[in-house]
Structures are given as C-alpha cells and as structure tokens.
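Sanity check

After download, print the first record. It should look like this:
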Amino acid sequence: MSKEKNVSDIVLAWLKANGYDGLTDDDGCGCTLEDFAPCGCCICNCFPGYNHRDKSESDFSISREKPKKPKNKSRPLKRGKT
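Expected structure tokens:
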C-alpha cells in the first residue's frame, strides 16, 4: 500500500522538481529541502527560495532571489605563434 501524500510532501516534491533549495517567509525564517519545515509551523505564508551561503550566522540563508552566478575571472589562455 502506498503512503498518502500530505501537503508538505507535495510542496517538497514541487520545490525539488522546480530547482528550489527551500522555503522562506522573508522575515528571517527559512528551511532547506534536507530539513524541511522543522519548526512545525504552517508553511502557508512561505515562498520558494534559493540557498545563499551566509557564513556569518549559519550554513544557509534562503532567499526568493536566485543567486547570481559568479563571474569567471580567469582569462582564456593565449596561444603563442608556432
């Protein structure tokens, strides 16, 4: 017999399928997919979010903004004449 999915299971599957890293409420609360809704609070006021590394306070910080890809600062190698 298959397990019935609750709303949290459905939301978690949707977040994974659409490339999100977790949820945020824009008020400092956030969770990752690996530790989904650990507070037990209602997730009805949360938004899908992306992980922004914040080394000052914790190992993650979820925000609605997609992180910018770091610019590649390396230059292509110049080939010398042979």
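If your output differs, re-run the checksum step. Summary of this record's structure: The mean pLDDT is 79.
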